[in-house]
Amino acid sequence: MGAKRPRNRAALTYHPTPVLDEMLANDESMYPDFEGQGLVLDPKRRKALEDAAQSRLEAYYRDRGWEVEDVRFDGPYDAIARKNGEIRYLEAKGTQSNGASVTVTSGEVHHARRHPGECVIGILSGLRFTQDGELDDKDARFTVSPWSPADEDLQATQYRWMTTRETVLPPD
Predict the structure, then answer these.
(1) How confident is the model at residue 92 (pLDDT cuts 50, 70, 90)?
(2) Which CATH class name applies to 42-153?
(3) CB-based burial label for 55 (10 Å; 0-12, 13-18, 19+)
(4) Where are the domains of the chain?
(5) Which residues are CB-neighbours of 168 under 8 A, at least 6 positions away?
(6) What are phi and psi of 61, to 5 degrees?
(7) 124 in Cβ contact with 56 (< 8 Å)
(8) CA–CA separation, 155 vs 166, rounded Å?
(9) What is the pLDDT of residues 23-79, one digit of tens each?
(10) pTM for the complete prediction?
(11) Residues contacting residue 107 through CB under 8 Å, at least 6 positions apart
């Protein structure tokens, strides 16, 4: 029998790169017409973007007489809106880009497909951060759309490969 492939890789050493980290964290703001949502590495900024979009979407529905419950930590959607026996599952996305595309999870897609006609996505785009790191939404654009993700509207951005059998290297 051949040797098993080693499971451990060589140890890596990570070195602080604050200048590069800052450049990457602010990358979207350098391109206001950027179409993709991008990756915000700074967790405080990412949370600020998410919270701003969530607040705007919840307010939008409350202003129209819906009862809104924040459930973003309990499942594949951010809030539930109820009115006159109707229900809407709300998904909120905040971005510094122009909002032409946003990142969604497989769980969000599966849920929306299981609840056709009941899912809505709200996108707050064009958000910026001030020099002090505060979120500035004065020029932001907010859109609300029915959300029924079709295959042609989705683009795979990463995969997870699952091994189902032990891999054996051929003998030398």
Answers:
(1) very high
(2) alpha beta
(3) middle
(4) 42-153
(5) 1, 2, 3, 4, 5
(6) -75, -40
(7) yes
(8) 31
(9) 555 544 444 444 455 566 678 888 999 999 999 999 999 999 999 999 998 889 999
(10) 0.72
(11) 75, 76
